[in-house]
Design goal:
mainly alpha, 85% helix, 157 residues, single chain, elongated
């Protein structure tokens, strides 16, 4: 094997693994860190902190997906299922620019003290449920995209 071939193969492996890395990153924040924070802190403190973590995570995911889309756009042939990247980008953008600001404005309107029996609580939970649905769908989509691309890479060898 030549050095160029090894480098290209390593680069392909890295590019195909980005979706998997992003999905693990999101899963750890959403399903490990967030529950720990809600168990440890008050709901208000945990909600603020998890919101900040997810805000940062969304920027990381948007950046990673944009890099993958640019790599595909400039002609890299190793990436399969471009539509999955576009859908993942749209899910993240909708969550970050659409749903998060709605939930944040609801929390700010009541001074971060949501009462479970209030109309604001029901509205917040509706948006939160949609956010969670997109969040889980994004993680699954990135895992499937990565597996497809890694399988395609292994099939070429």
């Amino acid at each position: 094997m030549t050095i160029t071939y090894r480098f290209k193969r390593s680069l392909s492996l890295l590019v195909c693994s980005v979706g998997l890395l992003l999905s693990v990153y999101l899963a750890v924040i959403g399903y490990v860190v967030a529950p720990l924070l809600f168990d440890t802190l008050s709901d208000q403190e945990a909600g603020k902190l998890v919101g900040q973590l997810l805000h940062s995570a969304n920027w990381v995911v948007l950046t990673g997906l944009l890099v993958l889309l640019v790599i595909k756009w400039i002609g890299y042939r190793g990436l399969q299922s471009l539509w999955m990247l576009v859908v993942a980008f749209m899910f993240t953008a909708i969550s970050h620019f659409g749903l998060s600001p709605k939930m944040q404005s609801i929390k700010e309107s009541v001074g971060y003290e949501l009462v479970h029996s209030s109309a604001q609580w029901r509205e917040f939970m509706m948006w939160h449920g949609l956010y969670q649905l997109l969040f889980l769908s994004l993680i699954l989509l990135l895992v499937v995209w990565s597996i497809r691309n890694l399988n395609s890479l292994l099939d070429r060898t």
